[in-house]
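agent> Task received from the user: take the single chain below, predict its 3D structure, and emit structure tokens. No templates, no multimer pairing.
agent> Plan: (1) validate residues, (2) run structure prediction, (3) serialize to tokens, (4) report one or two observations.
agent> Step 1 OK, no nonstandard residues flagged.
tool_call: predict_structure(input=
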Amino acid sequence: MASFNYLNPQSTQTLRQGIYEFHQAEVPENDASETVTPELLADIDMHDAIHVLFGCPTHLGGEIIAHVWTALGTTVPLQAMHRVNQHQDHRSVLAEIGHRHLIQAWVRSLPQILMAVIRALQMKRRWPAENYVAYLDQRLCDLRHEFKIRIPPQSSHGGRSGAALRTVHSS
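)
tool_result: status=success, residues=171
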């Protein structure tokens, strides 16, 4: 897997730079953001910011951990997450991945899920992800310190790159 600076707990990149780097992991011909309905684009952009700030890799397991961080480490209401998850574009991506593969990924991710839950509960306060634009020019290390976001070192992330929600694939 390529090494991404935003996955470094001490990254001095700004959130904007981290999001740019995150997008470089995408395979352009699989970029679902070109085909999803416009009402999901803002949610996808916010979700990308969550991936970067919370150091979630771009494989399916990283996607799962990003959802855990969203639910427990941000101020995003669960109803908003449910609204996105029920949208036909999101459901189509999940159907392509397949239920069996999703369940296997969740089971394999249980240790990381538990660690994310514990670390989210130790945060100073939840990050206001709905207002991520206000944080774009702040350094990741400063934001992580301010909110007491502890992410695992880069070496503990496995898998190959390619954003699971933004791009459509199952690995």
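agent> Step 4: summary for the user.
The longest helix spans residues 38-53.
agent> Done.
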